[in-house]
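DATA SHEET
Item: assembly model
Revision: 1
Owner: S.N.
Input lines:
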Amino acid sequence: MLRTFRLGGIHPPENKLSAGKTVAILAPPPQVIIPLGQHIGAPAQAVVAKGDQVKAGTLLAKAAGFISAPIHSSVSGKITKIDQAVDASGYARPAIYIDVTGDEWEETIDRSETIRRECTLSSQEIVAKITAAGIVGLGGATFPTHVKLTPPPGSKAGILIINGVECEPYLTSDHALMLQRGEETLTGVSILMKAIGVDRAIIGIENNKPDAISHLRTLARTFAGIEIMPLKVQYPQGGEKQLIDAVLRRQVRSGALPISAGAVVQNVGTAYAVYEAVQKNKPLFERIVTITGRGVANPSNFLVRIGTPIRYLIEAAGGLSGQTGKIIGGGPMMGKALVSADIPVAKGSSGILVLPREEAARKPSLPCIRCAKCVAVCPMGLNPTLLMTATEFVQWEMAEKNYIVDCIECGSCSFTCPSHRPLLDYIRLGKGKVMNIIRTRKS
Amino acid sequence: MENKLIISPSPHIHSGDNIGRNMYGVLAALIPAFAVSLYYFGLGALIVTAVSVASCVVVEYLIQKYLMKQTPAITDGSAILTGVLLAFNLPSNLPVWIVVIGAIAAIGIGKMPFGGLGNNIFNPALVGRVFLLISFPAQMTTWPLPGRFPMDYVDAATGATLLSKLNEGVSQWPSFVDLLLGNMGGSLGEVSAAALLLGFAYLLARKIISWHIPVAVVGTVAAFTGIMHLADPLSYAGPLIHLMSGGLLLGAIFMATDYVTSPMSRSGMLVYGAGIGLLTSVIRLFGAYPEGVSFAILIMNALTPLINTYFKPKHFGGK
Amino acid sequence: MILIAILTLGGIGMAGSVLLYAASKKFEVYENPLIAEVQEALPAANCGGCGYPGCAGFAAACVNASSLDDLLCPVGGADVMNRVAAILGQNAAKTDPKIAVVRCNGNCQARPHVNRYDGARNCAVASALYGGETGCSYGCLGYGDCATACTFGAIHINPATGLPEVIEEKCTSCGACVKACPKNIIELRNKGPKSRRIYVSCVNKDKGGPARKACANACIGCSKCVKECPFDAIQMDSNVAWIDFRKCRLCRKCTLVCPTKAIHELNFPPRKEAATEAGGAKTKDIINEKTNSAC
């Protein structure tokens, strides 16, 4: 029996259209737009000015606080302006525009293909390098990685869990990475183990990727303390708390950090970025992006520079096929529908999903029939229909008492609802309001 | 601007489930039981079911259109389902006009005054049935004996059900096979345990209902009547007789699991099911009525909001 | 037999009354009789516009306050506050009647849609994730949170423009719509003499270019009105003008100079010059426009 998390969950059609496609390297576009807020926390502060010449890897903006991350140039060229640009949030935010000339990298970056496995740096030195490279959680949450590697005083991690689950339908970027950069990724995992001071790591992979499981298993024999654990396919297994439950059979207490269960969770993509930062001195300025969906001609996996407009990726994937309904940044369950194809790829863009018109529209919402299917699938054990009603009728006390802040916004409830009710739309709003209320009460 | 990109919050895909799929799924699960009733009760079963369904749909349509001024949503199948379930709880020789009154009570009292689908407190079909049981006790408790299709609608031979005999302390039990197939008197949809269990398997396979409520009901009735039977085998029938007679299986599988009127959490469902089982057993063994499933379900319907308050879903990482 | 019945019933009655008396004494809550008196004078709308939980809460606040300066029942206005002041033997603060004003005129023609929103029809939900369906991320979303919040039925979305409209006679200026609007578009402004008032019907903080591109009716921050105003009543803040209704003398000079007609005037008689394009007719035009364009 394969393990999985024990509460709720769904199994949407996997639709991994781009599975098995080799990662193609995409040349830099003529112009990139690099947003300054690509992570959770304070947006970075620009340290360059209009007219400056930059190379790939040049620092563009420094971290604005502990929960923040620096941002580097992904191309060589000239900064044309520092202005507002509409990003994935749907609002205009500060961004740096660079006109690309050539492809020169900073000299400190090791561009060779040789794999460097040994790392003699201390834990602090590793964390310092990760901080400087601007690495954030690449699974999509974009939480600055160095924060997770610096546990609050008094707590100690016993194990590192690596998320190679890729539970979102359609996405295959992590899958491609594990197959093609397996050794580098595992080196990154060992470096992360050293950084947090644990001697054991488990990589959880859903068993719809048997090739990745067997490939990494073979490689893992040459690394100390790394295990591969196949998991039963179930969404949202990539959620931090769900993954810990699936792998360790431990539930993180409501309101507590994963470290309280003795675990630190990192994504495989993050592990690879850590490898590049520590062993190759390369800041995070490119990533693997899946471009997929029945709205594009050739679903593919690309290695893309941060700041590349999505339009450029769509063209590289053979262009749009038919009437486009939605362009989604991320997977279909948790991704964000984008307002235009001019939005740039950011650190957290694991995939671009293009849905044709007929797949994109929602059905009209009908009255709740109290079937409790949302309750049955909620991986956090909440009552989504109650929380939606509480939000609709502004009953924050009721919402708080029913743990609205524990919602992980996985969307299983809305996915399942036979009445097509926009459960998560409201719960997300209510969660934000209740979190604000709690914050003001504390201060 | 024909090609405007659609924006919406996540998730962007849907399971494809809808209300109709669930309602028609339950209807499909009722087909075996309906076939059995056609076989044993003939034309009467067909007439009562058809009249009940037609009246429920018409009443709902009229109320939605003219009283509530909404767009009628009768195609979602919920009114059809109420009609079928009501019919399944009636004797197959019931006069048509009484069936119509039952349908009006079910939809007009049990469902629409609360705001329609999703808002009713009590199971509408059972509201209709209990309304008729109290208003027309004689007609509602004279059940035709099983015959062969096609039979005459009005002049079928009638007799008491097994349950009413139970209260009188009869020691001649029908054979297990007859109970399983439904070769006995009773409401038209309740007689065959095998057909109802087949429907249950179908509902579980399509994930339309979960196992919790039916199993809790059946388990509690089995436990309670089993203990009584062990204590005094002469006065009390064994659990198997209780499980396979009367409306117990129909109620446990199809009526108690009604989405709208049953609790939402797993633990709540178990408590609710156990409550129905307990009340049914108590009414059957000690009450004035030979059958108690309808009353038990209605009483537990009333307690559902309370159960929802005290039996919350198991919260991840909660104490 | 009869005696026993009388005694039993009488006994129960006596015991009950003693119990009730004891309970009422023990659990008695003293309430200042003035509170009930003040509450009588209030409109009993329980709208919460005053910031207190219902009229009873407001009455208690009035009685307990040392002065009535910071207390106002927006529904009742000056009349009610004067009555309350009379009951309490104090002076009511002078207040002018107010009314809710919608500061967005990005109707379908002026503000073309660039996306189609398909989520829950709720402004708060939509604005938490997106700027809206149009290029303007400051303007009205049109899903009617304000209309839902209004307990007096005084605000509704006009399907022709996709914008909210305030019904003057019904608006009590309770402020529920102001709180409900996630874009902070609705403002409580002085009702003005004969309901005449002038306001900037835009809150777009973008610079002129982007604002104009997103909406033909946007305030582009050109400051012409600021220079024109003889009473120094107009302020320019983050590329959007705001008319201080305490200083405005309703001279209507600003509406003439506004290049995008973002300044609206309401309930004025037609100008002598019959400048039909500008001024009073403008708002009427928008409201009465019978368009079937897919908004």
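QC remark: DSSP finds eleven helices and nine strands in chain C.
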